[in-house]
Amino acid sequence: MPVRAPRDRTRKGAKHSKPLLHAYAILSRRNVEELKQLENLRRDARNSVGPGRIAESSERQEELQHRRASGLLVPSQVRTLWSGETAILRELNAATAFVPRVPKKFKFLDIGCAPGGFSLYILHSHLNVRGVGIVLPEFQGSEGSMLRPTDTACYKHIGDPSADEYSRPATSLPRLPDTFYAPYSLVYMDGRPVHADIDSPSDPYTPEPPPPTKMSPTAIAHFIGQLLVTLGSVELGGTIVMRLAHIERAPAAQLVYLLDMISETLVLHQPQGSASFYAVAKGVGADTIVAAPLLKRYIKALHLLWDELSTGAGLQRGRLVERELGRVIPAPAVLESRGYLDRLVELASPVWAAQARALRDVLQREGTGGGC
Protein backbone atom coordinates (compact mmCIF):
# COMPACT_ATOMS: atom_id res chain seq x y z
CA MET A 1 0.00 0.00 0.00
CA PRO A 2 2.61 2.57 -1.02
CA VAL A 3 1.83 6.10 0.09
CA ARG A 4 4.74 8.45 0.39
CA ALA A 5 5.34 12.15 0.55
CA PRO A 6 6.09 13.34 -2.98
CA ARG A 7 9.54 14.67 -3.75
CA ASP A 8 10.74 15.72 -7.16
CA ARG A 9 14.48 15.75 -7.61
CA THR A 10 14.45 15.67 -11.39
CA ARG A 11 16.84 18.22 -12.85
CA LYS A 12 15.36 20.78 -15.17
CA GLY A 13 15.58 19.52 -18.71
CA ALA A 14 16.29 15.92 -17.69
CA LYS A 15 15.00 13.29 -20.07
CA HIS A 16 11.96 11.26 -19.07
CA SER A 17 12.30 7.53 -18.62
CA LYS A 18 10.11 5.13 -20.57
CA PRO A 19 6.78 4.20 -19.01
CA LEU A 20 6.80 1.12 -16.80
CA LEU A 21 3.11 0.30 -17.15
CA HIS A 22 2.17 -1.24 -20.49
CA ALA A 23 0.84 -4.50 -21.90
CA TYR A 24 4.18 -6.16 -22.51
CA ALA A 25 5.32 -5.37 -18.98
CA ILE A 26 2.38 -7.48 -17.79
CA LEU A 27 2.79 -10.20 -20.43
CA SER A 28 6.46 -10.59 -19.57
CA ARG A 29 5.40 -11.49 -16.03
CA ARG A 30 2.12 -13.33 -16.62
CA ASN A 31 0.70 -15.31 -19.54
CA VAL A 32 -2.66 -13.53 -19.83
CA GLU A 33 -4.55 -14.96 -22.78
CA GLU A 34 -7.12 -12.12 -22.89
CA LEU A 35 -4.45 -9.43 -23.08
CA LYS A 36 -2.40 -11.42 -25.57
CA GLN A 37 -5.41 -11.73 -27.90
CA LEU A 38 -6.17 -8.03 -27.56
CA GLU A 39 -2.59 -7.08 -28.43
CA ASN A 40 -2.65 -9.38 -31.46
CA LEU A 41 -5.87 -7.77 -32.65
CA ARG A 42 -4.40 -4.30 -32.15
CA ARG A 43 -1.45 -5.34 -34.26
CA ASP A 44 -3.80 -6.69 -36.96
CA ALA A 45 -5.70 -3.41 -36.93
CA ARG A 46 -2.54 -1.40 -37.39
CA ASN A 47 -1.10 -3.59 -40.14
CA SER A 48 -4.27 -4.17 -42.16
CA VAL A 49 -6.48 -1.08 -42.21
CA GLY A 50 -4.47 1.44 -40.22
CA PRO A 51 -5.29 2.88 -36.84
CA GLY A 52 -7.26 5.83 -38.14
CA ARG A 53 -10.16 3.89 -39.66
CA ILE A 54 -10.46 1.52 -36.71
CA ALA A 55 -10.40 4.36 -34.23
CA GLU A 56 -13.03 6.22 -36.25
CA SER A 57 -15.28 3.16 -36.33
CA SER A 58 -15.02 2.23 -32.66
CA GLU A 59 -14.74 5.59 -30.90
CA ARG A 60 -17.56 7.77 -32.20
CA GLN A 61 -18.92 8.25 -28.72
CA GLU A 62 -15.41 9.09 -27.53
CA GLU A 63 -15.14 11.83 -30.15
CA LEU A 64 -18.37 13.38 -28.92
CA GLN A 65 -17.10 13.19 -25.35
CA HIS A 66 -13.97 15.13 -26.26
CA ARG A 67 -15.94 17.64 -28.34
CA ARG A 68 -18.14 18.35 -25.35
CA ALA A 69 -15.05 19.24 -23.30
CA SER A 70 -14.21 21.88 -25.90
CA GLY A 71 -17.71 23.35 -25.97
CA LEU A 72 -18.17 22.29 -29.61
CA LEU A 73 -21.39 20.28 -29.29
CA VAL A 74 -24.49 21.34 -31.20
CA PRO A 75 -27.98 20.24 -30.03
CA SER A 76 -28.14 17.23 -32.38
CA GLN A 77 -24.80 15.99 -31.06
CA VAL A 78 -26.01 16.45 -27.49
CA ARG A 79 -29.01 14.21 -28.25
CA THR A 80 -26.76 11.61 -29.86
CA LEU A 81 -24.37 11.70 -26.92
CA TRP A 82 -27.20 11.45 -24.40
CA SER A 83 -28.71 8.46 -26.19
CA GLY A 84 -25.40 6.61 -26.26
CA GLU A 85 -24.42 7.55 -22.72
CA THR A 86 -27.79 6.49 -21.35
CA ALA A 87 -27.38 3.00 -22.81
CA ILE A 88 -23.84 2.75 -21.44
CA LEU A 89 -24.81 3.90 -17.94
CA ARG A 90 -27.88 1.68 -17.90
CA GLU A 91 -25.71 -1.35 -18.68
CA LEU A 92 -23.13 -0.24 -16.12
CA ASN A 93 -25.77 0.11 -13.42
CA ALA A 94 -27.24 -3.30 -14.26
CA ALA A 95 -23.77 -4.82 -13.83
CA THR A 96 -22.64 -2.91 -10.73
CA ALA A 97 -25.74 -1.33 -9.10
CA PHE A 98 -23.89 1.94 -8.48
CA VAL A 99 -27.17 3.84 -8.13
CA PRO A 100 -28.66 3.13 -4.68
CA ARG A 101 -31.78 0.98 -4.94
CA VAL A 102 -33.22 2.03 -1.59
CA PRO A 103 -35.54 5.05 -1.66
CA LYS A 104 -33.66 7.02 0.99
CA LYS A 105 -32.29 10.44 0.10
CA PHE A 106 -28.71 10.64 -1.13
CA LYS A 107 -26.33 13.19 -2.65
CA PHE A 108 -23.98 12.73 -5.58
CA LEU A 109 -21.08 14.71 -7.01
CA ASP A 110 -20.22 14.79 -10.72
CA ILE A 111 -16.67 16.07 -11.28
CA GLY A 112 -16.18 17.63 -14.72
CA CYS A 113 -19.89 17.37 -15.38
CA ALA A 114 -20.35 19.25 -18.70
CA PRO A 115 -22.59 18.61 -20.51
CA GLY A 116 -24.22 16.54 -17.77
CA GLY A 117 -24.90 13.02 -19.06
CA PHE A 118 -23.97 11.23 -15.84
CA SER A 119 -25.83 13.75 -13.69
CA LEU A 120 -28.93 13.54 -15.85
CA TYR A 121 -28.92 9.73 -15.68
CA ILE A 122 -28.76 9.80 -11.86
CA LEU A 123 -31.47 12.46 -11.60
CA HIS A 124 -33.78 10.36 -13.76
CA SER A 125 -32.91 7.08 -11.99
CA HIS A 126 -33.67 8.05 -8.40
CA LEU A 127 -36.56 10.10 -7.06
CA ASN A 128 -34.96 11.28 -3.83
CA VAL A 129 -31.61 12.65 -4.95
CA ARG A 130 -29.68 15.89 -4.87
CA GLY A 131 -26.67 16.51 -7.09
CA VAL A 132 -23.75 18.88 -7.48
CA GLY A 133 -21.71 19.23 -10.65
CA ILE A 134 -18.18 20.65 -10.71
CA VAL A 135 -17.52 22.36 -14.00
CA LEU A 136 -14.94 24.76 -15.37
CA PRO A 137 -16.42 28.28 -15.52
CA GLU A 138 -16.43 28.45 -19.32
CA PHE A 139 -18.81 25.46 -19.53
CA GLN A 140 -21.44 26.67 -17.05
CA GLY A 141 -24.73 27.26 -18.81
CA SER A 142 -23.29 26.26 -22.18
CA GLU A 143 -25.63 25.50 -25.04
CA GLY A 144 -24.35 21.92 -25.09
CA SER A 145 -25.72 21.13 -21.63
CA MET A 146 -28.00 18.12 -21.34
CA LEU A 147 -29.63 19.44 -18.18
CA ARG A 148 -33.02 21.05 -18.59
CA PRO A 149 -34.53 23.82 -16.44
CA THR A 150 -36.69 21.24 -14.63
CA ASP A 151 -33.51 19.50 -13.40
CA THR A 152 -32.05 22.54 -11.67
CA ALA A 153 -34.39 22.29 -8.69
CA CYS A 154 -32.33 19.41 -7.31
CA TYR A 155 -29.01 20.13 -8.97
CA LYS A 156 -26.45 22.92 -9.03
CA HIS A 157 -23.14 23.78 -10.67
CA ILE A 158 -20.10 25.02 -8.83
CA GLY A 159 -16.74 26.12 -10.17
CA ASP A 160 -13.91 23.61 -10.18
CA PRO A 161 -11.86 24.24 -7.00
CA SER A 162 -8.84 22.50 -8.50
CA ALA A 163 -8.61 24.92 -11.42
CA ASP A 164 -10.34 28.24 -10.91
CA GLU A 165 -9.36 29.38 -14.38
CA TYR A 166 -7.67 26.65 -16.36
CA SER A 167 -5.92 29.10 -18.64
CA ARG A 168 -4.07 30.75 -15.77
CA PRO A 169 -0.43 29.83 -15.22
CA ALA A 170 0.34 27.07 -12.72
CA THR A 171 1.69 29.57 -10.20
CA SER A 172 -1.75 31.23 -10.05
CA LEU A 173 -3.80 28.15 -9.22
CA PRO A 174 -5.64 28.61 -5.91
CA ARG A 175 -5.35 26.27 -2.96
CA LEU A 176 -8.08 23.68 -2.62
CA PRO A 177 -10.54 25.07 -0.06
CA ASP A 178 -10.86 22.81 2.98
CA THR A 179 -14.47 23.89 3.34
CA PHE A 180 -15.38 22.28 0.00
CA TYR A 181 -15.24 18.70 1.21
CA ALA A 182 -18.61 17.24 2.10
CA PRO A 183 -19.90 13.68 2.35
CA TYR A 184 -21.42 12.49 -0.92
CA SER A 185 -22.84 9.00 -1.24
CA LEU A 186 -21.75 8.79 -4.87
CA VAL A 187 -18.87 10.56 -6.63
CA TYR A 188 -18.12 10.33 -10.36
CA MET A 189 -14.82 11.29 -11.99
CA ASP A 190 -13.54 10.90 -15.53
CA GLY A 191 -10.09 9.46 -14.85
CA ARG A 192 -8.78 9.87 -18.38
CA PRO A 193 -6.23 12.70 -18.47
CA VAL A 194 -7.15 15.56 -20.76
CA HIS A 195 -4.88 18.11 -22.38
CA ALA A 196 -2.21 15.42 -22.71
CA ASP A 197 0.69 15.59 -25.14
CA ILE A 198 2.33 12.39 -26.33
CA ASP A 199 5.23 11.68 -28.62
CA SER A 200 3.03 10.30 -31.41
CA PRO A 201 -0.69 10.51 -32.25
CA SER A 202 -2.91 8.88 -29.63
CA ASP A 203 -4.06 5.48 -30.83
CA PRO A 204 -5.57 2.77 -28.63
CA TYR A 205 -4.59 0.07 -31.14
CA THR A 206 -0.86 0.74 -31.28
CA PRO A 207 1.30 -2.15 -30.00
CA GLU A 208 3.02 -1.54 -26.67
CA PRO A 209 5.06 -0.02 -25.22
CA PRO A 210 3.16 3.21 -25.85
CA PRO A 211 4.77 6.61 -26.09
CA PRO A 212 4.91 8.29 -22.69
CA THR A 213 1.88 10.44 -21.95
CA LYS A 214 3.02 13.92 -20.98
CA MET A 215 1.03 16.84 -19.63
CA SER A 216 1.84 20.41 -18.74
CA PRO A 217 2.33 21.09 -15.02
CA THR A 218 -0.96 23.01 -15.00
CA ALA A 219 -2.83 20.08 -16.60
CA ILE A 220 -1.33 17.55 -14.19
CA ALA A 221 -2.18 19.80 -11.25
CA HIS A 222 -5.75 19.92 -12.54
CA PHE A 223 -5.87 16.12 -12.89
CA ILE A 224 -4.41 15.53 -9.42
CA GLY A 225 -6.76 18.17 -8.01
CA GLN A 226 -9.80 16.38 -9.41
CA LEU A 227 -8.58 13.09 -7.92
CA LEU A 228 -8.06 14.83 -4.60
CA VAL A 229 -11.60 16.24 -4.64
CA THR A 230 -12.94 12.76 -5.52
CA LEU A 231 -11.28 11.08 -2.54
CA GLY A 232 -12.05 13.91 -0.14
CA SER A 233 -15.71 14.26 -1.08
CA VAL A 234 -16.97 10.68 -0.82
CA GLU A 235 -18.54 9.69 2.48
CA LEU A 236 -17.14 6.74 4.41
CA GLY A 237 -18.82 3.68 2.96
CA GLY A 238 -19.76 5.59 -0.21
CA THR A 239 -19.24 4.77 -3.88
CA ILE A 240 -16.78 6.13 -6.43
CA VAL A 241 -17.44 5.62 -10.14
CA MET A 242 -14.46 6.35 -12.36
CA ARG A 243 -14.25 6.29 -16.14
CA LEU A 244 -10.89 5.00 -17.38
CA ALA A 245 -9.06 3.84 -20.47
CA HIS A 246 -6.29 1.25 -20.96
CA ILE A 247 -6.10 -0.57 -17.66
CA GLU A 248 -2.65 -1.84 -18.61
CA ARG A 249 -1.27 1.70 -18.75
CA ALA A 250 -0.90 4.75 -16.57
CA PRO A 251 -2.80 6.33 -15.00
CA ALA A 252 -5.60 3.74 -15.18
CA ALA A 253 -3.60 0.90 -13.59
CA GLN A 254 -2.51 3.18 -10.76
CA LEU A 255 -6.04 4.45 -10.16
CA VAL A 256 -7.45 0.90 -10.12
CA TYR A 257 -4.80 -0.01 -7.54
CA LEU A 258 -5.75 3.02 -5.44
CA LEU A 259 -9.49 2.29 -5.55
CA ASP A 260 -8.91 -1.36 -4.69
CA MET A 261 -6.86 -0.43 -1.62
CA ILE A 262 -9.48 1.91 -0.12
CA SER A 263 -12.76 0.11 -0.88
CA GLU A 264 -14.59 -3.01 0.22
CA THR A 265 -15.45 -4.09 -3.33
CA LEU A 266 -14.19 -3.04 -6.75
CA VAL A 267 -15.85 -4.00 -10.01
CA LEU A 268 -14.55 -3.16 -13.48
CA HIS A 269 -16.95 -3.20 -16.39
CA GLN A 270 -16.58 -2.50 -20.11
CA PRO A 271 -20.02 -1.48 -21.46
CA GLN A 272 -20.90 -2.41 -25.00
CA GLY A 273 -20.31 0.47 -27.39
CA SER A 274 -17.90 2.27 -25.09
CA ALA A 275 -14.19 2.65 -25.76
CA SER A 276 -13.68 3.22 -22.02
CA PHE A 277 -14.20 0.96 -19.06
CA TYR A 278 -15.58 1.93 -15.66
CA ALA A 279 -14.34 1.21 -12.15
CA VAL A 280 -17.00 1.09 -9.44
CA ALA A 281 -15.59 1.11 -5.91
CA LYS A 282 -18.08 0.55 -3.10
CA GLY A 283 -17.59 0.85 0.63
CA VAL A 284 -14.82 3.44 0.28
CA GLY A 285 -13.11 3.86 3.64
CA ALA A 286 -15.68 1.63 5.35
CA ASP A 287 -12.96 -0.51 6.90
CA THR A 288 -12.00 1.75 9.79
CA ILE A 289 -8.95 -0.36 10.67
CA VAL A 290 -7.16 -0.30 7.30
CA ALA A 291 -9.04 1.48 4.51
CA ALA A 292 -10.09 4.68 6.30
CA PRO A 293 -6.58 5.53 7.60
CA LEU A 294 -5.12 4.61 4.21
CA LEU A 295 -7.60 6.92 2.49
CA LYS A 296 -6.47 9.78 4.72
CA ARG A 297 -2.83 9.06 3.90
CA TYR A 298 -3.55 9.10 0.15
CA ILE A 299 -5.42 12.39 0.48
CA LYS A 300 -2.53 13.94 2.41
CA ALA A 301 0.07 12.74 -0.10
CA LEU A 302 -1.99 13.92 -3.07
CA HIS A 303 -2.51 17.29 -1.41
CA LEU A 304 1.26 17.69 -1.02
CA LEU A 305 1.75 16.75 -4.65
CA TRP A 306 -1.02 19.12 -5.77
CA ASP A 307 0.49 21.97 -3.76
CA GLU A 308 3.89 21.44 -5.36
CA LEU A 309 2.55 21.20 -8.90
CA SER A 310 0.17 24.14 -8.55
CA THR A 311 2.78 26.45 -7.06
CA GLY A 312 5.27 25.67 -9.80
CA ALA A 313 7.94 24.07 -7.59
CA GLY A 314 10.55 22.33 -9.73
CA LEU A 315 8.52 22.70 -12.89
CA GLN A 316 9.66 21.27 -16.16
CA ARG A 317 7.81 21.06 -19.39
CA GLY A 318 5.96 17.89 -20.35
CA ARG A 319 5.76 15.88 -17.15
CA LEU A 320 4.86 12.18 -17.30
CA VAL A 321 1.48 11.26 -15.85
CA GLU A 322 2.80 7.89 -14.70
CA ARG A 323 5.79 9.47 -13.01
CA GLU A 324 3.93 12.25 -11.20
CA LEU A 325 1.10 10.02 -9.96
CA GLY A 326 3.77 7.41 -9.20
CA ARG A 327 5.11 9.63 -6.47
CA VAL A 328 2.00 8.56 -4.54
CA ILE A 329 1.15 5.27 -6.30
CA PRO A 330 4.46 3.83 -7.62
CA ALA A 331 4.15 1.87 -10.87
CA PRO A 332 6.45 -0.93 -9.59
CA ALA A 333 3.96 -1.62 -6.78
CA VAL A 334 1.26 -2.31 -9.38
CA LEU A 335 3.55 -4.72 -11.26
CA GLU A 336 4.90 -6.46 -8.17
CA SER A 337 4.83 -10.19 -9.04
CA ARG A 338 4.38 -11.29 -5.44
CA GLY A 339 1.99 -8.47 -4.65
CA TYR A 340 -0.72 -6.79 -6.69
CA LEU A 341 -0.13 -8.07 -10.23
CA ASP A 342 -2.31 -11.18 -9.93
CA ARG A 343 -5.14 -9.07 -8.54
CA LEU A 344 -4.80 -6.60 -11.42
CA VAL A 345 -4.96 -9.45 -13.94
CA GLU A 346 -8.04 -10.85 -12.18
CA LEU A 347 -9.83 -7.50 -12.40
CA ALA A 348 -8.67 -6.60 -15.89
CA SER A 349 -9.15 -9.89 -17.77
CA PRO A 350 -12.91 -9.44 -18.37
CA VAL A 351 -12.22 -5.90 -19.62
CA TRP A 352 -9.51 -7.07 -22.01
CA ALA A 353 -11.80 -9.88 -23.23
CA ALA A 354 -14.63 -7.42 -23.92
CA GLN A 355 -12.27 -5.04 -25.73
CA ALA A 356 -10.95 -7.92 -27.83
CA ARG A 357 -14.48 -8.96 -28.83
CA ALA A 358 -15.36 -5.40 -29.80
CA LEU A 359 -12.20 -4.91 -31.84
CA ARG A 360 -12.63 -8.31 -33.51
CA ASP A 361 -16.15 -7.29 -34.58
CA VAL A 362 -14.79 -4.03 -36.01
CA LEU A 363 -12.10 -5.88 -37.97
CA GLN A 364 -14.63 -8.37 -39.33
CA ARG A 365 -16.93 -5.55 -40.44
CA GLU A 366 -13.96 -3.96 -42.16
CA GLY A 367 -13.30 -7.29 -43.89
CA THR A 368 -9.81 -7.67 -42.47
CA GLY A 369 -10.19 -10.85 -40.44
CA GLY A 370 -9.69 -10.54 -36.72
CA GLY A 371 -10.23 -14.22 -36.11
CA CYS A 372 -7.41 -14.78 -33.64
Could you give a short description of this structure?
The protein is α/β, with parallel strands linked by helices and about 375 residues long. The protein is built from twelve helices and ten strands.
- How much of the sequence lies in strands comes to 15-25%
Approximate shape = globular
Gyration radius, in Å = 20 Å
Instruction: State the end-to-end distance.
Output: 37 Å
Q: What composes the largest sheet? A: 7 strands, mixed
Q: Which structural class do you get from the secondary structure elements?
A: alpha/beta
The share of residues in helices is 40-55%
Could you tell me the mean pLDDT?
75
Name the helix and strand elements from N-terminus to C-terminus, one letter apiece: HHHHHEHEEEEEHEHEEHEHHH
Number of strands: 10
- Order of strands side by side in the largest beta sheet? 3-2-1-4-7-9-8
Low-confidence stretches: 8-16, 51-74, 138-144, 163-174, 195-209
User: Helical stretch count?
Assistant: 12
Could you describe the 3D structure shown?
By secondary structure, the chain is an alpha/beta fold. It is 41% helix and 15% strand. The chain contains twelve helices and ten strands. It has a seven-stranded mixed sheet with strand order 3-2-1-4-7-9-8, with helices on both faces. A hairpin with a 7-residue loop joins strand 8 (265-269) and strand 9 (277-284). 45% of the residues are buried.
List keywords for this structure.
single chain, 372 residues, alpha/beta, seven-stranded mixed β-sheet, 10 strands, 15% strand
